Amino acid sequence: MIKVKNLSKDFPRQKVLTDIDFTAKDGRRVLILGKSGSGKSVFLKCILGLLVPDTGYVEIDGTDVSALMAKPRLKRKLTRVRQNIGYVFQGSALLDSLTVEENIDLALEFKRLKKSERDRIINEKLKLVGLSSKVRRKYPQQLSGGMKKMVAIARAIASEPKYIFYDEPTTGLDPAMVVRITKLIIELSERLDITSLIVTHDMGLARRAGQDVYFLKNYTLSRTKKSTRLEELYE
Ligand SMILES: Nc1ncnc2c1ncn2[C@@H]1O[C@H](COP(=O)(O)OP(=O)(O)OP(=O)(O)O)[C@@H](O)[C@H]1O
Ligand SMILES: [Mg+2]
């Protein structure tokens, strides 16, 4: 379970998050919606520890991650907690100079596995997201936007994390690929029993995949009632 209490994060001359409370229960698909620039990506990064919150508390599976962030000597413990989170970055963020297999392999480096075992995992994860092992030797620029997104998801699940964060997983994709990625997100959460945090502007994805819904507005995050029409939130 992920628990956030009273989290605030500002940048110089820019207020972003104030007193955020949030819970993601195990196995759920949790939506984080909000207008562009409202702070959704900043919020995910604060949970991951890629950005350090100014104040507040982030707990992952009972570990106080915010305390670990504040103490450099506990960096290894923070890294272990982070290894339980797969992150599909806004825009995929594959490394262009590396092949598909090398990109996925990056997520396995810390596991100290034999090359043959890593190869097996790479094939298995590619298959799980619906890609053939033929793409292994390709470079990101040889792939379509949708395929890049699938590789990014394969990389995020490579180490079998308990959590996966998707930041705008369907933006810029054609409608068929949007449907495919939406189905994949639901399927992975059910088959792998993974807890998903999904940041999106895509109302189709939100309606199909969302189980718990939070909306970020005026620097705060509110839990939305089940009966609320998602479009209403933006009015
Ligand atoms: N590292 C940073 N330094 C300074 N300001 C930042 C930084 N990261 C984000 N911001 C600012 O914080 C605000 C929230 O940014 P964020 O990227 O979280 O928005 P978002 O809700 O994810 O938007 P979008 O839907 O367009 O992706 C923006 O005004 C942005 O300019
Ligand atoms: Mg964003």
UniProtKB/TrEMBL annotation:
Domain ABC transporter: from-to ranges: 2-233
Membrane-spanning intervals of the chain: none
GO molecular function: ATP binding; ATP hydrolysis activity
Pfam families xref list: ABC_tran
SMART domains reported for this sequence: AAA
Coiled coil stretches, renumbered: none
Keywords linked to the UniProt accession: ATP-binding, Nucleotide-binding, Transport
InterPro entries linked to this entry: AAA+_ATPase, ABC_transporter-like_ATP-bd, ABC_transporter-like_CS, P-loop_NTPase
PANTHER family recorded: INTERMEMBRANE PHOSPHOLIPID TRANSPORT SYSTEM ATP-BINDING PROTEIN MLAF (PTHR43023:SF6), PROTEIN TRIGALACTOSYLDIACYLGLYCEROL 3, CHLOROPLASTIC (PTHR43023)
Protein name as catalogued: ATP-binding cassette domain-containing protein
Protein source organism: candidate division WOR-3 bacterium
